[in-house]
Amino acid sequence: MQQALGQFEPFYEETKTQVLRYIAAHCLDIADIEDLFQETYLSIYRSLSNRTERIENNESYAITAAKRTISKHYSAFRRFTAKVGSGFSKLGSKDLTEDIPDGSDIENIVADRELIAEISQIVAEAPGSVGRIFYMHYVLGMTLSEIAGDLGMPENTVKAQLYRTLAEIRRIYGRRDLL
Questions:
Q1: Which residues touch 137 (CB under 8 Å, ≥6 apart)?
Q2: Are residue 26 and residue 61 in the same domain, yes or no?
Q3: In total, how many domains does the chain have?
Q4: Which residue of 26, 91, 142, 178 is surrounded by the most CB atoms within 10 Å?
Q5: Is the pLDDT of residue 125 over 60?
Q6: What's the rounded Cα separation, in Å, for the pair 81 and 162?
Q7: Between 98 and 50, where is the model more confident?
Q8: Which domain holds residue 53?
Q9: Nearest to residue 95, comparing CAs of 118, 107, 113, 108?
Q10: Residues 132 and 26 sit within 8 Å (Cβ to Cβ)
């Protein structure tokens, strides 16, 4: 077990950025990115625990594991929604007052969280790759040209989708300081 951990840590450090970018570019829902990332590395860790031979190309191995994880996840998700129906929310109903430090301005924090939830919903419901573009740009810190390369689309398309959605959010909320 200790040997697997010793192999896993450098493997993870070497591959995490590319795997996260791959998952963000290929997932069907941005809400799934963190779960898919975690599941990918859990499967890699298990594999390293049972493996005796050296991996020739860590990045290729990790991307292949991410592909399998994504495929398995969405296959299981389709089976589940076929049985249960798609009328449920994956987002749940998190208490907006959760984890607020004592002495904080609760009204402003809750209002900010509500605003973030509303904007997240707009981005999640936006057509095409908008959600992935937002995630890759604002969470992963990727440039528009990097996003375009990972998504296989022209940079102008990425830029137009991002800025069109930003303009829509600003129009809805009437604030220039958003995003």
A1: 143, 144, 147, 162
A2: yes
A3: 2
A4: 142
A5: yes
A6: 30
A7: 50
A8: 2-84
A9: 113
A10: no
